[in-house]
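User: Batch of two.

Assistant: Item 1 of 2:
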Amino acid sequence: MHLHGEPPPPEWRQALRGLPLPAWRYVSRVTSTQDAAQAWAEAGAGEGCLVVAREQTRGRGRGGRPWLARPGASLTFTLVMRPLPQEGPWLSRASGWAALAICRVLEEAWGLHPHIKWPNDVLLQGRKVAGILIEAPWKGAKVPRYMLVGIGINVKVEAIPPEGRVDFPATALEAHTPAPVSLPRLLRQLWKTLYRWRYRLSHPDLLKAWEARLAYKGEEVWISPDETHTFSARLMGLTETGALRVRLSSGEERVLPSVHRLRPKREALP
């Protein structure tokens, strides 16, 4: 079912036909799909509803970083989640769930070998091809009323931003595929894969699959917990909740629920 928004182009309507989507909206131009989805969620959008855009004028990533992409060159959408009460302890795995879904589509459709740069980026050959932004109105609640899962995937090579405008090397899906990629069909594959795992956030298999694709596991990395501090550590893996486990040069192990920036130590410090 398609509700509100603009009449979607035929290829979008055809690609999403038959999915058990409660509702979806297509917009040709929007500040951010997160903004549009938030307004819709506040108005009552249910679990699984999504907003997809051809162009974002102020697309953003984690930490408020801009998401740069030319119109029609990236797949940009936001999915509305309505968490169940029992999912509260596992909602910190949401970025891993979304990243894992992207990885599975890239593996199953094109035989690629993506990795997840903790906590919310997907890499191809060491370069960022996709990013995830999770936002929710927690306000002290154990389970928020809704969560917004924003996903951006560089698809066309025109989506690759100039090196000087990003803080991590980027790539695009079509730089790794033998033929052009249909954005509507990619969204169909991704929605189906997301909902294959949607209610398995607490399942050990999700954590195992996430950790198996973890970029830099066992390697030395640079970690910036904030904008002013950086230290090196060996990336060991994930905790049960999806936090990062690292080992300092002293041998001390530390658990990091979040970081400002993470990059391999084989690269020079920025």
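Item 2 of 2:
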Amino acid sequence: MQLYEYICNACGKKFEALIQGDDKAACESCGSGDLKKLFSSFAVHAGSAPQIPDCSSGCEGGFNQGTCGSGMCGGH
């Protein structure tokens, strides 16, 4: 299964859909099949080394899964 992001050309709704094999996505709002597949930001890689976000104040000094939104804290 693949996770894709789409925008519906009929109603403008942006959504994600899990697609298996040759299955086709349909808008979760209006049911239209007139969709544009979006380029997912998580697939973008810049530079040669992976980037891990620094901790926010909610991480309380280290790894605290789910608090930062990434599940990983690289600041400590």
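The CA atoms of residues 6 and 37 lie 4 Å apart.
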